[in-house]
Structure formats: C-alpha cells, structure tokens
Amino acid sequence: MNDEQKQNDPMNLNGKKYQQLESFRVDHNNTKLTTNQGVRVSDTDDSLKAGDRGPTLMEDFHFREKMTHFDHERIPERVVHARGFGAHGYFQVYESMTEFTKAKFLQDPSVQTPVFVRFSTVVGSRGSADTVRDVRGFATKFYTEDGNYDLVANNIPIFFIQDAIKFPDVVHAIKPEPHNEIPQASAAHDTFWDFVVSNTETAHMIMWLLSDRAIPRSFRMMEGFGVNTFRFVNDQGKARFVKFHWKPKLGVHSLVWDEAQKLAGKDPDFHRKDLWEAINMGEYPEFELGVQMIDEEDEFMFDFDILDPTKFWPEEIVPVKIIGKMTLNRNQDNFFAETEQAAFHPGHVVPGIDFSNDPLLQGRLFSYTDTQLLRLGGPNFHEIPINRPIAPVNNNQRDGFHRMTIDKGQVSYSPNTLRGNSPQPASDKENGYVHYAEKVEGQKIRKRSESFHDHYRQATLFWNSMSNAEKRHIIKAFHFEVGNVKDKTIKQQVVEMFNNVDGFLAAEISKGIGVMPPANPGGTGVTESSPAVSQDNTIKDARTRKVAVLADHGFTFDELMQVKTALEGAGVHVDIISRTLGIIASVEGQQIEVNKSYSISSSIMYDALFIPGGQQSINNMMMHKEAKDFINDAFAHAKPIGAINEGIDLLTNAEVKNINLALTESKGEVTTHLGVVTVRNPSDFEAFNNEFIVAIAEHRHWLRENQDGKMTG
Ligand code: HDE
C-alpha cells in the first residue's frame, strides 16, 4: 500500500482523520458566487445604490453580509504562543508499550495514529517574526481511537517558574511593557529582567533561553519536551512517573544571533516557510518519541525533586527510551481553520496517561480550556473540525454558542431511564478513564516544598555541559539581553544572581554590560555535566540543507554542475544566485537559469555557500558588493563555504583573507580549513564534493570564532 492508499484506508486511523477533515474541505472550483444563504450573487463589485452616483441602500443584503463577515474575521490571538504554524502527520509506536501503559495508541506498531502539530513562539504577537530569541512551543494532538491525547510541549525541557500561579506574572514581565508596548517579541527589557532577579527559580530556564536552543535553525531541527512530569499507568494499574521527549531525526541545530536578527527583518516567515516547503517537497520531518520513566518507589532517589518543573532528568541518569516516530507529511489547507482554531490542552489525556502533582502542571490543567472558551467563542470548540476526535463523542452536554451537533431525543441528563441510561459510564475494563488512585494527604497551605528550594545546581550542570562555542554564545546573549536593560541596579543584580551559577560566567556577563564583576567568584560546586544537552553532540546530517551557489556570466560549467549534482544526490538543495533573475551563460556557452537574484536573497537564507570558478564570472562578482556580503555573512555565521579555482580568489577578495588559502595552491589537493573547502585544478570532483558535504552536515564551524566572538582564520 502506498502512502496515499494508506491514508484512504478506512481501517487506518490516519486515513480516518483525513477523511473526517475531507468532509469539511471545500475547494470552490467551478462554482457560482453565493451568499451564506446559498443565494446566487449577480455582482460583488458594486454596492446597490440609488442611482449610479447615489447613496448605498440598506437593503443590499449581499453588501451587508459581506462586510459584516469581514468585520468579524479576527478572533483574539492566543495570550501566549500567538504565532504558530501547523502540519498534519501520523505517529507509529515501534513496539508495544503494554508493560508500561495501556494507552491504545502505544500498543500496536501497525497502527498509524493521525496527529496535528502546531509549532509556535511564545512571546510575540501573531504577526511577529519567526526567528526571535524565545522558547518554541511544540504541541501535538494525537487523534487516537480512545479519544484525543495532546502532548503540549516546548523545545526547552524546563520552565521559568515552579508554580502556575506565577504564570500571569512572568508573562506580563516578558511581554512588551504596558505603557508603550515596546519591545515586541523580546525578553531584552527591564520588566523581564526585574522579574528574573526577583525570582531566582528562573535561573536555570534563563540559561537555556540564552543558549542556542532559543534560536532554532528550523522547527524540523528542534527537540520537544513535555516539561511536566506525567504518569504512565498499565492495565494492572501500576504507575510510573514519565517525561516525554521528541527527538528530531535531523538533529538539533540553531541559527546564530546576528543571523536570527537579520532574518527577522528579511524573512519573518523563515520557519513556517521552511516547514511548509519541506513537506511540499516530500522531505517529511520526522521526530522520534522518547520517554524517561521513574518507578513510583524511586520518587525520592534523586538530588532534585522530580515534580519540580525547573529541573530536567539528565539522560545520563534516567535514559530516554525511544518508543516511536512521528512523520509530518501533509500541509494544512487553511491556516485559520486548522492552525489558528486548534485547541491543545495538557489535560487532554487518554486511559494509560495520568498526571503528577507537579504544581505547574496542576495549574495548566485549569488554564487551557479557560482561555480557549474566550478565544474560540464558546464551549463547543471541540466540534471545530481540527479539534474533533475520531473517537465517538457521546454525552449530555448541550447547546451553547456555535453548536454543530443536532442531538436527537428528549433526554439530556444522567442517570436516565427514558433512554436506558445511555450514554452510560464505561468501566475500567471497557476503557473508561479511571484516575490513578494516588494517596494524598496534607494541610491546606500556600507553600513551596523545601525540595524545590535549590535554584542553581542544575543551572551549573547545564553551563558545565556546554561546549566552548555554546558558552560564548550564552555570554553574548547576556550582553545583548541585559545590555538592553536601562536600570543599572537590575543589571548588577543579574551579575550577582548568575554568580550563584558560575563565577566565570558572572564575571564575563559583567564585562559586557557596564557593571561591576562579582566581589568573589561564586558557583554551586557542581562539577558534573550532561553531554546530552549540548548541541555539539547532536545528529549531523546534510539532508535538506540549502546551498547558495554564486555565479555570473562566464562561470565554469563543469565545476558548477558536478558539485550541484553531488549535493542534490546527498539531499541538499541548491539555488543559483546572481545579479539578476534570468539566464547566465558559462565560459563554454551553456546556459543555466538563476533561481534567486541578490535583491531577493541573502546569505542568511542558506546553510552554506559554493563558488565555482570561471575568470569572467569571478571578475563580475568582484564588482558587486552583494557577492562579497554573501561571503562575509556566511563566513561570520560560521557556515560551510566551498570554492573551486578562481572561486577561491573571490574569497580572498572578500574578507576571508586570514584563512590559509595558500594550502589550496597545491594541485588537485582538497583543503578543508575551519569549514572552508577549497581546491585548485582538481583531477576529479569527488574528494571535494565529499568534504563539502561533510562540512555542510557539521552545520557550523565554530572554531572560526575566537574568544572575543570575532571571526578569525
Ligand atoms: Fe502553556 N499555555 N502554560 N505551557 N502552552 C497556552 O493555551 C499555561 C507551559 C504551551 O499551539 C495557552 O490555548 C500555564 C509549559 C504550548 O495552541 C494558555 C502554564 C509548556 C502552547 C497556557 C503554562 C507550555 C501553550 C495560551 C503554567 C511546555 C501553545 C493559548 C505556568 C510543556 C499551544 C492556549 C498551541 C499555550 C497556559 C506553561 C506549552 C494561556 C498556566 C510548561 C506549546 O492556556
């Protein structure tokens, strides 16, 4: 069965959801224009007037309806995670998880469970940019045969605060300041850092937020984390604590800050476009689902509280068991109907998945429905196509705004005799949801557990786990974020607060923000690290990367084509970039089409750069600042660069002069230095292509950055 047949197979859950959505999809091809009442419209360009220069008439029902509908097109944006982008796909478990959970969608490896995923930023408005420094949301709705299960995750495994009651405070602090609505989609302002220094539980999350994790290269290259601690419960009623992970098959990769800022202006849709295009090209993003499990008996075995959402469970201590894979293989048809109207909820669980007493999770369980009631205009948003379960829905809930179901019969209460007490509660055996019978006792008290009081040890653990380049990026991020704070006392307090994490870090922060270093170097004394959290140790894969090829009239055809073919063979995309759109001709006269001109492209939109030789082509490019900008940006952003013959001279002519290009003078020898791959007079291109592809897979070549964060050869 091919993918399409599978999707249409009614026994297949994946196909079932698609079919369900199909009945709501309308393409409007070859139709006549009508009103919402189905009345055909004869003219939609002129309102009904008393004379062709006269006033518009109230009785113009088509005008009134068209305008009223338009006036009401917008709904409130999400109070957080307003900017998002969704895609459809399916999930398949690798092997039965019956030992750990009775969740049906985790039992049978042959079942494809349909999913809808919405990726998002947290702070910015709906129209803000994709590449801002922020946490990314990663919410997945599984349409399981037992009802909908939502895994409402982020790309960072911990959170700012320990108790949900502080959520309105942290969000007010990080959103634009209320008196002037500045700045948009940014944490680099006084109120946020005032909140940080006043709430030391944020320390660990700040380390992640200022790391490369918060400027992902692509939604396809991010991890997802359920953050909160949940429970798996099996059919014997045995429970285990569980944390959920999504692991991208393409590895975890990031932009650099300068690039992210420039992209926010040049291509604010960078991430959504990347996802949309990848799916359209059949490069379906894949994420493996992993779980960390802790037995109930081991709850207190760790030097952190496993219910504290400002702590992660280091993978080296609690391994991640990979249990299945999600494939995103279908773009939405309509952004509003699908992405915008999707409603996720951490409380949407199915039998086999239960909650813990994590105080952040407990509060989340209230918030999501509450906010959706307002955003989606009433209590019936579960009937919106994207939110409908494929499992049957039967209950006595009735009426309310926008009710779609026509509930038949006179009975709408329970228990009843008139309809044989239907719908009847289902027993445990019939897979009725029975909450895990955790024993709880305690005094009613507004208090934080002592076990939540350490705010720094894991922040140090995270810092210790970073590579030198990652550490440099964190320090530079502090310089930007706190450098933008106007209140000097807050800046000084930031240094004091992060001195509790690491003395060197605090001293380095102080250097860039104009305040005193800490009097005495501090720290927690934690020396361990967790290699799994460093992006240095992630999957390195060239597939789906994008390479810009700079060329002009008079390029060497063979050099361009051989490299292009090899790159495409490795799943890498190639765009020919030149001064203008149209055709360019090689030295020998062969013609190729330019994909992008300098005015509609930029180095920041690509992962790597290639410059084939050809004296005339290079001479032409030397006259153009845009070609040099491409090279200098690509070099500064630590991107792989490939050049052949005269192409190397263009590198030297730009600012890549420190690099030891002399090495490349030796005939036919490929040289790779700091991610710059060059060769002169190659006898064949294979060695060059291979090294260039390895350099692309590496993603970035951080050794180019010296200790000051400047570029060096
Ligand atoms: Fe959310 N969060 N959140 N959150 N969250 C919302 O629900 C909330 C938290 C997350 O694509 C809201 O429908 C509270 C952690 C995602 O539609 C709101 C707390 C994590 C999305 C809400 C948290 C998340 C939301 C806003 C406790 C990672 C976007 C709109 C402090 C596990 C879902 C909405 C989508 C959205 C409340 C913390 C993830 C206001 C009270 C931790 C991915 O209900």
Q: N-to-C terminal Cα separation, in Å?
A: 53 Å
So what's the CATH class of the largest domain? Mainly Beta
Low-confidence parts lasting 5 or more residues at pLDDT below 50? 707-713
Helix content: 25-40%
Which distinct ligands sit in these coordinates? CIS-heme D hydroxychlorin gamma-spirolactone 17R, 18S
What layout of secondary structure does this protein have?
Layout: H1 3-8, H2 13-22, H3 61-71, E1 84-93, E2 113-121, E3 136-144, E4 147-154, H4 167-174, H5 190-198, H6 203-209, E5 224-225, E6 230-233, E7 239-248, H7 257-266, H8 270-280, E8 286-295, E9 321-331, H9 336-340, E10 353-355, H10 359-375, H11 457-465, H12 468-483, H13 488-499, H14 503-513, E11 546-550, H15 557-569, E12 573-578, E13 582-585, E14 591-594, E15 596-597, E16 608-611, H16 615-622, H17 625-636, E17 641-644, H18 646-653, E18 671-673, E19 676-679, H19 686-697
Parallel strand pairs: 11-12, 11-16, 12-15, 16-17, 17-19
Antiparallel strand pairs: 1-2, 1-9, 2-3, 3-4, 5-7, 6-7, 6-10, 7-8, 8-9, 13-14, 18-19
Helix pairs in contact: 4-5, 5-13, 6-11, 12-14, 13-14, 15-19, 16-18
CIS-heme D hydroxychlorin gamma-spirolactone 17R, 18S is lined by residues 78-81, 84, 118, 120, 137, 139, 152-154, 159, 164, 167, 226-228, 342-344, 360, 363-364, 367-368, 371-372.
